[in-house]
Amino acid sequence: MEEKFEHDYNAEQIQVLEGLEAVRKRPGMYIGSVSVRGLHHLVYEIVDNAVDEALAGYCKNIYVTIEPGNIICVEDDGRGIPVDIHPKTKISAAETVYTVLHAGGKFGGDSGYKVSGGLHGVGSSVVNALSDWTEVTIQRDGGIFEMKFEKGKTVQSLTRIGDSDKTGTKVRFFADGSIFETLEYEYEVLEKRFREMAFLTKGLRIVIEDLREEMPKKSDFCYEGGLNSFVEYLNKNKEKLHPKPIYIEKAGDFPVEIAIQYTTSYTENIYTFVNNINTIEGGTHLEGFKRALTKTFNEYAKAKNILKEKDGNLQGDDIREGITAVISVKVKDPQFEGQTKTKLGNSEVTGIVQAMVNEHLSAFLEENPNVAKAILDKCISAARAREAARKARELVRRKNALETTTLPGKLADCTNKNPDECEVYIVEGDSAGGSAKQGRDRTFQAILPLWGKMLNVEKARKDKIYGNEKLNPVILAIGAGIGSDFDITKIRYGKVIIMADADVDGSHIRTLLLTFFFRYMRPLIENGNVYLAQPPLFKLSKRGMEDIYCYTEEDLTKAFKDLEEKGISRDQVGIQRYKGLGEMNPEQLWETTMDPANRILIKVTMNDAIAADETFSLLMGDEVGPRRKFIEDNAKYVRNLDV
Predict the structure, then answer these.
(1) Residue 48 appears among annotated catalytic residues
(2) What's CA 579's distance to the chain center, in Å?
(3) Which one from 53, 501, 591, 614 is the annotated catalytic residue?
(4) How many CA atoms lie within 13 A of 17 on its CB side?
(5) Is the domain 405-535+603-616 a CATH 3.40.50.670 member?
(6) What is the model's pTM?
(7) Are 477 and 522 spatial neighbours (Cβ–Cβ below 8 Å)?
(8) Strand-strand pairing, 495-499 and 574-577
(9) 154 vs 125: CA distance, rounded Å
(10) Could you tell me if residue 567 is left (phi over 0), alpha (psi between -120 and 50 degrees) or otherwise beta?
(11) Is the Cβ–Cβ distance between 77 and 46 less than 8 Å?
(12) Where in the chain is the domain with CATH 3.30.565.10?
């Protein structure tokens, strides 16, 4: 017999959240999360409004300040939010913008905003709703106006407090600590975002200042070169095939700006933006660009006899090897796939971008034959390497098909076959691999030992990767292919854990593996499948006392302090500094580094693809000068260096 629960269910049980209550009840629906990422989103929303004023031609300067106590202040010299009474809400337009969802100047055709990133109209009101308090000061119409809010509710309606012949808006807010997991802003994250915004809005000055520490930080961004400056910045650590970017610009009702520069690297880096929104999944503007690039280079190569008819056409991947490009389009009514705005869906954009790139790129190649030849030589070399990679891949596949198993011989696999429940440890060295095999839980933990230094893929083409004795076991063990063939649904393990020694050689191996994953298995990182194991650095032991493992210098200091409180001095304790994983027996390795109940795993994340690409190019690329400067600048931060 079914059990029934007695309760009333009628109109009284249907909740109606009025005003901004819905935002405070379900903040994740509006800003994605209440983590530090969502906290930064509040700043972006207010700055986006100021950038929209710049796109409309009314704002030249934006000042962002992180004040002591994590108070944010954003000030611009735009027109200022309208202060007259709104006909529908019967309160000032400014107060309406900050207290009513989907209220803003970007929905109608006569607002002065031809294009805008904040299409949902929730920016200012959502920031207000999720803040402990908000203060807005507006200068326009000859006056200075002020209004104040607490937790989204008005505590001071718009009031004229003085006279001014200037225009602009200043917003100060303090995020609500009862909603967000943290209130600590990361200066570097905000700095990267605003540098990007300045690149995308030619001539706009964005200043960010952090006043929380004794030594304030400040960055001042303004790029008259626009996307040319952006591409030059992205390629600053790479060897260029031509000194200046290829620049394409079109004004009018559908503004398009594109900058292209080829380098000697083997990866493609194309970044796309719509109304200054980073469309990380691309869309129709990227599709139009790729089509034009492939068509234009093939037609030019055939016309100049650089490519013979019998050779067939170069493929898109060949032509995009080593390219760095930024594509920025402004669309009046953009259609994004999903509320996250990461993929443009407007079908008409494909043809517009394709026609424009065809025209401008064809003219550039004709006028710059030396640059055209240098690029095409690289494209043809890439095509040959692609064919060599295809043969190498087929050879690997045939070899595996003839063997009894397609898994590498050194892999000690787990018995569970559910990827969500399985993990593979990629372990440096045979001795550590042996200990890991003996110490693991074989039901869900697989061990793949590696030995020696592996290939630096930053300096190698794909044809050198297939069949490489160090990388091929990793490719086979993970089981999802590489590069454009990589299929995240085919991974054999939900966690891919890099376990290397806590020394210089171990750091190098970790970096080489991460470079490989970033360049050829990027979805593995984006999907959160890559982890770093953290073995202990020290073991404290004493007769009659349980061993204490310390993973950092801070852990060691705390352990000694705790022991001293128990009456045990440092002299009475034996301390072992682990130089390598091989020094641990299987039981110790399991207890400290592999047991899910005790271990420390660091998930490898990639919030900023541009910054990640810059870092890998700097550390693993051919350019020695920038890498030397990085080492010199950061050497002072090194605490432990085993030589």
Answers:
(1) no
(2) 33
(3) 501
(4) 10
(5) yes
(6) 0.73
(7) no
(8) unpaired
(9) 11
(10) left
(11) no
(12) 21-221
Q: Catalytic residue at 311?
A: no
What does residue 636 show for φ and ψ, rounded to 5 degrees?
Answer: -65, -15
Of 209, 503, 526, 583, catalytic = 503
CATH 3.40.50.670 in the chain, residue ranges: 405-535+603-616
Question: pLDDT confidence of 55, banded at 50, 70, 90?
Answer: confident
Please state which CATH class domain 21-221 belongs to.
Answer: alpha beta
Alpha helices in 313-368 (DSSP H): 316-319, 348-367
* For the chain, percent of residues with pLDDT exceeding 90: 52
- pLDDT per residue over 318-329, tens digit each? 999 999 999 999
Chain-centre distance of CA 198, in angstroms? 18
The catalytically annotated residue of 67, 268, 505, 555 is 505
- What tokens does 65 get? 């300040």
Instruction: Give residue-wise pLDDT tens across range 335-350.
Output: 887 555 578 999 999 9
The larger pLDDT score, comparing residue 215 to residue 634, is at 215
Question: pLDDT per residue over 444-488, tens digit each?
Answer: 999 999 877 778 888 787 778 876 888 888 988 998 888 878 899
Q: What class has domain 227-386? A: alpha beta
Return d(Cα 64, Cα 48) in angstroms, integer: 12
Q: Is the pLDDT of residue 131 over 90?
A: yes
Tell me how crowded residue 573 is: count the other CB atoms within 10 A of its CB.
15
Which candidate, 475, 2, 460, 106, places its Cα nearest to that of 267? 460
Structure tokens at 161: 């407090």
Q: Tokens 């067939």 appear where?
A: 312
**Helices 36-55 and 187-200, axial angle in degrees (round to 10):** 20
CATH 3.30.230.10 domain position(s) in the chain? 227-386
CA 281 vs. chain centroid, Å, equals 12
What distance in Å separates the CA atoms of residue 300 and residue 373, rounded to the nearest whole number? 10
Q: pLDDT grade, residue 303 (50/70/90)? A: very high
SS3 content of the chain, % helix, strand, coil (to 5): 40, 20, 40
**Which of 135, 210, 428, 614 does the annotation list as catalytic?**
428
Counted residue by residue, the chain has a size of: 643
The span from the CA of 279 to the CA of 643, in Å, is 44
Predicted pLDDT at 451: 76
The CA-to-CA distance between both ends of the chain, in Å, stands at 73
Backbone angles phi and psi of 359, in degrees to 5 = -65, -50
Active site residue 503: yes
Per-residue pLDDT band for 577 (boundaries 50, 70, 90) equals confident
Mean pLDDT of the chain: 85
Nearest Cα to 104, choosing from 120, 89, 126?
A: 120
Q: Is 231 exposed, middle or buried (0-12, 13-18, 19+ CB in 10 A)?
A: buried
pLDDT of residue 244: 95
Q: What angle, 0 to 180 degrees and rounded to 10, lies between the N-to-C axes of helices 348-367 and 369-402? A: 120
Judge whether 622 counts as a catalytic residue: no
